[in-house]
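Support request, please re-run this one:
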Amino acid sequence: MGEEEAVAEENGGLKVESGEQKSSWPTMRFDVSPYRTHHFSKQFRTARNPNNFLKGLKWSPDGSCFLASSEDNTLSLFHLPQDGGDSNGYGVPVPEEETIRYIFGIVLLLRCTYRAYDAMDEITAAFSVGFNPDGTKIFAGYNSSIRVFDLHRPGRDFRQYSTLQKNKEGQAGILSTLAFSPTNSGMLAVGSYGQTTGIYREDNMELLYVLHGQEGGVTHDPYILCWDIRKSVEIVYKLYRATENTNQRVFFDIEPCGRHLGTGGQDGLVHMYDLQTGNWVSGYQAASDTVNAFSFHPYLPMAATSSGHRRFAIPDDDDGEDKNELQLKADENCVSLWSFYVEDNTYDENNGVASESHLQNVTEEIVLT
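Re-run finished. Output below.
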């Protein structure tokens, strides 16, 4: 036991098994609000597109950087700072083409393009995209169909699977989101605008279940629904988020250990829920406008949020012309990085909260190794 604690201390509180070198997820404290470590807003406010706004973000698998997408068809890449300085971010324009582009690595080189065609031999746009767990195929959601591309065969070759069966059972409408089982069980969940979620086999797209109970499209339903796949007849519980008055996609995330879920909403808050009980745990103010994405870091006790929504210029009563500039606050249309306190042997003497200095050491040690 003493050796394990020593190893954990050397790794910033993360326990590492000597044989397989596997790190365990740090236990984050949600009874204490996280603190903002970095904030970005100027990068998304340009004169050529004053109504630009963020639409979502996601960490890279290794946690070294994250991508943020915005309304001006640009992907902005941000590297995680290692010295406490500013994160160096830059944007890559994404053309408005109905193609799927595989952008490789840190330098964002276009390596392959995958195109889907409809019955009229015209390019059709995907509404959702995802890699399968082993990274050999790209699954894309369309209107009542899924197209599967072989990663090693770019171009227009694909397999198409209809999600609406001949007896009209299955899923109809736009398939707006895809999610693969993290346990590599070979199952794929597909959400649609038709207020259904379908569970399929990855290898042959056989429909296993159709889950009902949503009040809106799966990506902006005011409730996040939880089912037990072993007994999918009833909903286990519902988690509320303020999204009932928007058509915007609002993304949630589950921490790597699978215990808690974080989600944003129109109220600018991030809400944390305990997935074992379905109870609300805590919340904190992340922005003054819609928090459309929340993403846990894959290894560190950190998270990233993006906020923003479409705004319209208000006509001036005097001359009847629209105002050219939208007055935005610093915490509107922005990206923020948050650090959570962790439960370990280093606490503040007064209130038992892990000290910021210790948390900073945890971050630096893990990033630099």
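The helical segments are 2-10, 356-368. DSSP finds two helices and 24 strands in the chain.
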